[in-house]
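INFO  loader      accepted 1 record
INFO  loader      residues=138
INFO  predictor   begin
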Amino acid sequence: MDDLDRHLLAELRINARASVPRLAQLLGVAAGTVKTRMDRLIDQGVIAGFTVRLRNDAADGTIRGMMMIELSGRNIKALVASLRKNIGFAALHTTNGQWDLIGEIQVPALADFHQMVTTVRAMEGIAKTETHLFLGPA
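INFO  predictor   done
INFO  writer      dumping tokens
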């Protein structure tokens, strides 16, 4: 998978029912490109359904972790929408307790993990984060 595939999956996580023309507009590519990419991802089993469930081995070789996030400011809804578009988040959950959100991170390389953490921490409205890198199964 390349960056366009990852961006397509990120948009489908936001709205798995988005039309091909809408996805093409969001990604800045031709509708035929989106259709071809989606067909390939379906044929390869990467997309198992349109709630966008990735097959288990699609994550092999990736760097995984989680980020707890405390939000601040007035425009929380827009901030959360912006975070959801970050292709490094496999999922983003609201939670209770000290943290407002918990993000499941899945990226291809440690440098991407670092870049993602740095980018999120620099966003306006992010008060505090705590990030954990998954080393392996227990």
